[in-house]
Give the backbone structure.
Amino acid sequence: MKVGIGRAATELGVSCDTLRRWEAAGKIEVERTPTGHRRYDLAKLRGLGLAGAGTKRITLAYARVSHQNQKQELRNQVSVLESFCAEKGWQFEVIQDIGSSMNYRKSGLRQLIQRLCQGDVGRLVMTHRDRLLRLGVELIFSLCEHFGTEVVIINASSLAEFEDELAEDVVEIITIFSARLYGTRSQKDHDIIKKLMDVARELEA
C-alpha cells in the first residue's frame, strides 16, 4: 500500500521532517508522482523495521547537577530514572551532565539536542523540569514537539529546590557580570561590582 507523507508519518509515529531526513540519508526509498508528491510503500517500511517507530524509538533519560561535589545527587537521579524507565518497560539510555542550568554548552545537553534532531528519540524523561535549563527550556520542549518526542517529568520541583537552584543561577550571573566590569577605572562600576558581590555572598549564605 502506497501512501502520502502524512499517512506514512502517522503509521511510523514520526514527523514528516523525519521522513524527509531518512530519505535524504538514503534510509528509505520514496516514489514521486507526476506532480512531485511523495509516495511511501508501507510494506517496504515495515520490512525495514520502521513501522511502529513511535513505540520502538529510544527513550532518553537526562540527569544533571550543577557542581562536581554533587556527584552523589547525580547518582541518585540516575537511579530514579533507571528504575522508572525499567518499570515502564522502556528501552532507554541515560545522559548525565555536570554544569549550571544556565550553561548551554554542556556536553550532555549538546548530545541530547543532537539525538532529538536525528528523530530517533521517542521519549525524554527527567526527574524535574529544570534539569535541562533554567532559561530556554521551552526551546528544547519545542524541539521535542517538532520531532514527536514525548516529554515525561517524574516530579514537580519543591519550592526549596527551586529557590536553591535559582540562587545558584543568580550568583553565576552576578559573577559573570562582575568579571566583565572588573578592571574598569570607573568608580561607578566599582560600586556596582561591590554591591553585586555583596548580594552574591548573601545568597550563598
Notes: The beta strands are 2-3, 31-32, 38-41, 58-65, 92-98, 121-126, 150-153. The first strand starts at residue 2 and ends at 3. The domain at 57-153 is CATH 3.40.50.1390 (Rossmann fold). The longest helix spans residues 159-181.
